Amino acid sequence: MIELGLLKSASLSGAQSRAIAIESQSVPIGRLVPVGRWILDDDETIQELAAWRQAALRMFLTQSTPTRQTSYDYLEKLCIGDQSRILFMIEDSTGSFVGHLGLANYSQDEAELDNVIRGRRGGPRELVLEAERALIRWAFSDLLVKRIYLRVLSHNFKAINLYDQLGFCTIERLSLARKTEGGFATLRACTADESNVAFKLNLMALEVEAFLAQDDRDH
User: Fold this and answer.
1) Alpha-carbon distance values, 69 to 5, 9, 73, 144, 164 (Å)
2) Sequence spans of domains, the chain
3) Which fold has domain 4-218?
């Protein structure tokens, strides 16, 4: 297994030297810049991450108002501190950060595609799709995982459409129950009888063989 911590640079220039190219029809359109301790000194980007999360709040299982401090803590303790997780900033061709995505629960055999957000406009329309494709290709070729899975709420139609295009298949649909306490809402998997929301949690997966076959056809 690759040590993900080796990619988490203390400097932005170091992170950019480890960036993964994003291409569309073999033309560079951006990069995936791995998040390391460099981001903790970038207050503007941390504030943006909080704003992006707020705008996309209804798409997450945990729903509470993000702040600069909660975003900082998430970056420091999870994205940087957790060695089974890595986050990448999506950088467009002008060098601006327009979103992020990452991997969580990385093990020898699999990883979870996680925290996909396009925060603002920038770059071509297909930038996020190709960013996901670049990350998945890297996970299969460099991390050598055999499967990538994800969890997505069934009302997140735009995201599901992108995952369909990448070859993900829905393997399970789970009922959900929402619990709100002190302004903090969480969604948890439950039986159909316990559910109190109209949507479900889709579990989707992509095997390496299926991705490589599709990748060869697309290129």
Assistant:
1) 23, 21, 6, 35, 35
2) 4-218
3) Aminopeptidase (3.40.630)
